[in-house]
């Protein structure tokens, strides 16, 4: 049984690293989302917001659940047709996005637009994860990483209203 959030947090970070995701990769996505709106934004500042999002227990639970499902699919330990659906990352499946939305909800409605945008264009680490190179399955992980970035970008925007600007 998990006694405190420290153990859960450390396991979530360990799993992200094992799956090829560095916190800097997520911070770069936050930078991508918020740089047009916040003058003087730095990668270090984005990383602070990523780390804050990752401290949320519901985020940690989502990471563990999604990565476990990806690993079960990789090792063919799911029944069909679910196995094929997850391995193929079928567009109409949608449960991977639903799981990710539990993270997006943490910081308000701006997270939905950030998530939808970044999920559609898949910049940076999201594009790499979405390729499913080798035998790796990242059906859940790519959406979770996009959601963490969207939540961190939302958190950042909410804490920096004086630096925000509207561009057209």
UniProtKB/TrEMBL annotation:
According to the entry, every stretch annotated as the YutG/PgpA domain falls at 35-158
Q: What is the name of the protein in this document?
A: Phosphatidylglycerophosphatase A
Q: Which GO terms describe its molecular function?
A: phosphatidylglycerophosphatase activity
Pfam families to which the protein is assigned, alphabetical = PgpA (PF04608)
Q: Which organism is it from?
A: Carnobacterium alterfunditum
* Coiled-coil region: none
BP GO annotations: lipid metabolic process
What InterPro entries does the database record attribute to this sequence?
PgpA-like_sf (IPR036681), Put_PGPase (IPR026038), YutG/PgpA (IPR007686)
